[in-house]
Amino acid sequence: MLAAQTGAHRAALTLRYLDGLTVPEVARALGRTVHATEALLARARAAFRRSYTALGEGGPR
């Protein structure tokens, strides 16, 4: 499911939840503002949730 995400979403989710960086640290790593990073993470979580839910409904793998 992570592989199905866009590059920006994948990077943000990986840095935040797999690498354990704080939002300001993710922002610095991606060259974004904290506010823009929070918005990116919100969109990335929503996209990940949609792809995860689609798997449970027999969607693409």
What does this structure look like?
- The protein has helices at 7-18, 23-30, 34-56.
- By secondary structure, the protein is an all-alpha fold.
- The chain has one domain: Arc Repressor Mutant, subunit A.
- It is elongated, with a radius of gyration of 12 Å.
Label this structure with key terms.
about 60 residues, mainly alpha, Arc Repressor Mutant, subunit A, 3 helices, about 70% helix, about 0% strand, elongated
List the helices and strands and how they pair.
Layout: H1 7-18, H2 23-30, H3 34-56
Helix pairs in contact: 1-2, 1-3, 2-3
What's the short version?
This protein has 61 residues and is an all-alpha fold.
| Model regions low in confidence, pLDDT < 50 over at least 5 residues | none
User: What's the total helix number?
Assistant: 3
Q: What would you report as the Rg, rounded to the nearest angstrom? A: 12 Å
What is the domain tally? 1
Task: Write the CATH architecture name.
Answer: Orthogonal Bundle
Q: Report, as a whole number of angstroms, the end-to-end distance.
A: 8 Å
What's the level 1 CATH class?
Mainly Alpha
Count all strands and give the number.
0
**Structural class determined from secondary elements:** mainly alpha
Using the coordinates shown, work out and report the CATH topology. Answer: Arc Repressor Mutant, subunit A
Silhouette: elongated
- The helicity comes to over 70%
Please, what is the average pLDDT?
A: 93
* CATH homologous superfamily identity: Winged helix-like DNA-binding domain superfamily/Winged helix DNA-binding domain
Strand % is: under 5%
